[in-house]
Amino acid sequence: MLLHAFKDFESEWAAFLAGGLDHRFVPGESSEQLAAEKTSKYGLAWFGDLAYGQTQANTHRKPFDDPRGTRALRLLLDHDEFKTGWANNWWGRGRYSVCFAAATADVWDLSEDEYRQHLEWKQPKDDAIMESLSLLAAAGFSKDKPLKFTLSCAGGNAPETASGQLTQAQFRRNSQGAVDPDLRVVDNSAWNQVRANSDFDYYAGGHSSGGTDPDTFFSSTYKTGGSRNYGKMSDPKLDSMFDRQKTLFDAQERKQAVRETVLYMIDNLPYGSHVARYVLNASQPNVHDFPPGSQTFEWGDHYEAIWKS
């Protein structure tokens, strides 16, 4: 097996089209056309990714220690625009989720129709914006006294930078001037350290728990002291819900516990989610039994059944 490194997604995709790579995930902007026109030319399969777009507030910095502010910011996010203006362009497809990547959400999460019943995901955004402005006013912020902070995102990675730019634009536009963040684009080489040190006010970027079981997300990202809980949120009630669901061995009972946890998170989580995402995997016609999965392929067993003719 040979590995090749590329400076950007475009040159990697060009190498696949030229036959220089055996597989590649399809750029979002090309996925629907390729699926429609090239079905017989390549092996194609959609998969739910292990990563998703997330926002985290640093809850140890004011004013993000006030749940009115973090709730207000979540209500300003337009998840439909993140589907059509970000996920579809970069990855292929998007899905609503408050805390899971698509690989987990497909089995454990609420349906998109159920999300649509909650204020944050309703369209049009008028009611959510009205509630957000009310919460901001109660916390002392308005168009005349806007909430100012630094919104951080990763640079050198076009999808990550685009998610930061869209988050900033939505906060400014939907708040009608009551939220006015500056954008800080952090070099990729420093990004992991920025998050690990909680050196941010608020950030937007890709996130993964490293697995697909719900508890990998709960315990790493949202539980008090979790290794990927960069904004240092802490909710004792939520911690107890996390602890309970992982002790349940009956599948349906655990699914119900996870559902109750997700519903609580929808109303109380200081972190947000843009959308979970789906990616179209393409392989050359002489590559067989290629299992679609995360483009990072962390586990070697992805390759065990693959063969070439």
Summary keywords:
single chain, 18% strand, 9 strands, 7-stranded mixed sheet, two-stranded antiparallel ribbon, globular, 309 residues, Dipeptide-binding Protein, domain 3, alpha+beta, 41% helix
Description:
The chain is α+β, with helices and mostly antiparallel strands and 309 residues long. The chain has one domain (48-278): Roll (Dipeptide-binding Protein, domain 3). It contains twelve helices and nine strands. The protein has helices spanning 9-17, 28-37, 67-76, 79-90, 102-108, 112-115, 126-138, 158-174, 188-196, 214-222, 236-245, 251-268, and strands at residues 23-25, 43-57, 92-95, 150-154, 182-186, 202-208, 272-283, 287-288, 307-308. The strands form two sheets. Strands 1, 2, 3, 4, 5, 6 and 7 form a seven-stranded mixed beta sheet that branches. Strand 4, helix 8 and strand 5 form a beta-alpha-beta unit. The protein is globular.
Total number of beta strands: 9
Q: Could you give the order of the helices and strands? A: HEHEHHEHHHEHEHEHHHEEE
Question: Are there runs of 5+ residues with pLDDT below 50, and where?
Answer: 295-299
Main sheet attributes: strand count, strand direction, barrel closure: 7 strands, mixed
Strand residue content: 15-25%
Question: Helices, strands, pairings?
Answer:
Blueprint: H1 9-17, E1 23-25, H2 28-37, E2 43-57, H3 67-76, H4 79-90, E3 92-95, H5 102-108, H6 112-115, H7 126-138, E4 150-154, H8 158-174, E5 182-186, H9 188-196, E6 202-208, H10 214-222, H11 236-245, H12 251-268, E7 272-283, E8 287-288, E9 307-308
Parallel strand pairs: 4-5, 4-6
Antiparallel strand pairs: 1-7, 2-6, 2-7, 3-7, 8-9
